[in-house]
Amino acid sequence: MTGTNGTTNGTSKAPYPYDTDAEPNNPTVIPRDTLGTFHFTFLIRHPRSSVPSYYRCSVPPLDKITGFYDFMPNESGYHELRCLFDYLRSIRLVGPSIAGHSANEEKSAINGVHASNGATQEVEVCVIDADDLLDNPAGIVKAFCKSTGIEFTLDMLDWSTETDQKQAEEAFSKWKKKVKSVEDEDSEWVEKYGEKGAKVIRETVNANIEDYEYLKQFAIQV
């Protein structure tokens, strides 16, 4: 018999699937010791680009390919990513150093997060903004490799054949951010997805900008 307090047959047990004690402030279902076996890096993209892209995958004809038949704004994930990011910093699984930042920039970005150092070797805060990666692939990939201890080679930026290279360039060119006004974006979204779709996209974008901008301040600069 399981009670609401998490006991089974009178024996204290943590929630399924792990028979481990709850960890204060851990926003995941993964124990801290397990989190400590990973080298974390973060890839972010502006909600004005990512949200309409996600919405497009949840409506015809792409919904039959993706299997996403309902757009769920709460699955955008920016707030959850920020919670995980701050938790990892607070327990020093990443940071305090920030990849691609000077000492003064690092200090201003700390924003009062208090850490208790349990790591034996520091892992830099490594955040990549997708737009920065598209604007400067070589610089960002090189900085990423430096932060993560991976040897950088030029073939990381090269596809195996001329045809593959051209296809990749054409595909990624669609991701490049075009400077548009809010009015232009709304008009484009109405044309593509109707008034209802455009409204939910704008509301979802606005709901996630604060968390995106918070993470953006940590992004690699080259």
Compact overview of the structure:
This protein has 222 residues and is mainly alpha-helical.
Shape: globular
Uncertain stretches of 5 or more adjacent residues? 1-10, 111-119
> Helix-strand pattern, N to C?
EEHEHHHHEHHHH
What fraction of residues sit in β-strands? under 5%
Q: Please identify the structural class as seen in this structure.
A: mainly alpha
Side-by-side strand order of the widest sheet: 1-2
Alpha-carbon distance between the two ends: 58 Å
> Which radius of gyration do the C-alpha atoms yield?
21 Å
Based on DSSP secondary structure assignment, what is the total number of beta strands?
Answer: 4
pLDDT averaged residue by residue? 85
Number of helical elements: 9
Report helical residue fraction.
40-55%
Keywords:
222 residues; mainly alpha; two-stranded antiparallel sheet; two-stranded parallel ribbon; 9 helices; 46% helix; 5% strand; disordered N terminus
Question: Could you characterize what this model shows?
Answer:
The structure is a single chain. The chain has helices at 32-35, 47-56, 63-66, 78-90, 103-109, 130-135, 137-148, 162-173, 182-216, and strands at residues 7-8, 11-12, 42-44, 127-129. The chain is mainly alpha-helical and 222 residues long. The strands form two sheets. The chain has a two-stranded antiparallel sheet. Strand 1 and strand 2 form a beta hairpin. The N and C termini lie far apart (58 Å). The model is unreliable at 1-10 and 111-119 (pLDDT under 50).
